[in-house]
Amino acid sequence: xxxxxxxxxxxxxxxxxxxxxxxxxxxxxxxxTKKTDLKVKPSSAAGNAYLCKKHYKMYKKATKExxxxxxxxxx
Length: 75
Ligand SMILES: [Zn+2]
What we know:
This protein has a domain at about 25-75. It has helices spanning about 30-35, 40-45, 55-75, and strands spanning about 25-30, 50. It is built from three helices and two strands. The chain is α+β, with helices and mostly antiparallel strands. The structure holds zinc ion.
């Protein structure tokens, strides 16, 4: 019953400043800084940013609102 050594790619954490939660999803970093007040590492803002569940929810909410507004405009 020994524990296998896990791959180093596991255990990636959220890229938001001050957050150490486990990542849930990766999203375009530029969008995160534009659409939300979250701060991500500069390297992540330029590429993909990993977000934890909580921060991903915030991101989804921010981008969803934008999408809904655009849909209303089509009517
Ligand atoms: Zn987070």
